[in-house]
Amino acid sequence: MTKFFMLLLFLLETSQIFRFLWIMKQKSTEDLLLLNLSWQRMLQQLSTTWYGQESSFLLKLVLVVQRGPCSYTGLPNLQRYKNESELFGRTIRVNLAKPMRIKEGSSRPVWSDDDWLKKFSGKTLEENKEEEGSEPPKAEMQEGEPTAKKARSNPQVYMDIKIGNKPAGRIQMLLRSDVVPMTAENFRCLCTHERGFGFKGSSFHRIIPQFMCQGGDFTNHNGTGGKSIYGKKFDDENFILKHTGPGLLSMANSGPNTNGSQFFLTCDKTDWLDGKHVVFGEITEGLDVLRQIEAQGSKDGKPKEKVIISDCGEYV
After folding, report:
1. In this structure, is residue 71 part of a structural domain?
2. Domain residues for 225?
3. Which of 54, 127, 183, 298 is deepest in the core (most CB within 10 A)?
4. Which chain regions cross the lipid bilayer (predicted)?
């Protein structure tokens, strides 16, 4: 008699599972995430009453209902749901693309080409910080200070630019050593060549209009080389200064804590780079020269004509 009831219980539980999987197949992701709470309670109860032992299969189903499809952990019949997730209140679907494999140490975001994320993700994070009541760092308050006041304590450097064989003009930059002293000192020394190496004679190898102009590879001249005054690489100092508009000076990198000598000048607001690249300066004179450099760019970043740093140094 006991065996009969155990068999009956097994059949009832199995039918409930198949019914649940059928619902998952018929419903959209949004409906799936809104399944009645009674399903969750039923699955939780079944997961602990399967012959008095926990069922890992049912526990996985509970996770899918409670946390959404992003909690997929290997159920064969749920394969089509594993590439759906929710971020900042919106469902992101990737039905045809193969999920990216990001190498360890890479800082490239998986959704880096999503215009919505570029526009709103940074804003959302800033709002969360304000809600927590955390005060902005003291150095952040210095961002609004007049340039003349900053110049009294921060070094100023210059770069003379040549496009093709013609001089294009000079870019003058203020380095924010009051906020990022290590990063600013690295750039200053590379401008003066006081360590025996630096930017003079190197090129802007990657120029993308309405985005940025990148240079600083004085060893390989193609974006794969360069070195800092501290060694080949050094850590991200902080991310206090933001990519708020054109003419900002920021460190290029290949992932977290991989700063060398490569840098870029922003051509527009690039706030999706906040928290990934260290801003350490700004153009004070020569924004028109930056626009000339930008005009040599292309969608793939390859310059139309060679853009060379013919000379560089520090104002003393």
Report:
1. no
2. 156-315
3. 183
4. none
User: Is 262 annotated as catalytic?
Assistant: no
Here the CATH number for the domain that contains residue 178 is: 2.40.100.10
The encoded tokens of residue 213 equal 């102009």
CA distances from 220 to 196, 205, 215, 302 (A): 17, 10, 11, 15
pLDDT digit of tens for each residue in the chain (316 aa)?
666 666 666 676 666 666 656 655 555 444 444 444 445 555 555 544 444 444 444 444 444 444 444 433 444 444 444 444 444 444 444 444 444 444 444 334 433 444 444 444 443 333 433 334 444 344 444 445 444 445 568 999 999 999 999 999 999 999 999 999 999 999 999 999 999 999 999 999 999 999 999 999 999 999 999 999 999 999 999 999 999 999 999 999 999 999 999 999 999 999 999 999 999 999 999 999 999 999 999 999 999 999 999 999 999 8
Q: Which of 46, 206, 263, 265 is catalytic?
A: 206
The count of structural domains within the chain is 1
Is 214 among the catalytic positions?
A: yes
Extended beta strands in the chain, E state? 84-87, 90-93, 156-163, 166-175, 206-208, 212-215, 248-251, 263-266, 279-285, 307-315
Active site residue 221: no
* Residue 292 designated active-site: no
Distance CA 261, CA 229 (A): 8
From the candidates 199, 211, 218, 280, give the one annotated as an active-site residue.
Answer: 211
Active site residue 253: yes
Please check whether residue 311 lies inside any domain of the structure: yes
pTM over 0.90: no
The verdict on residue 165 lying in a domain is yes
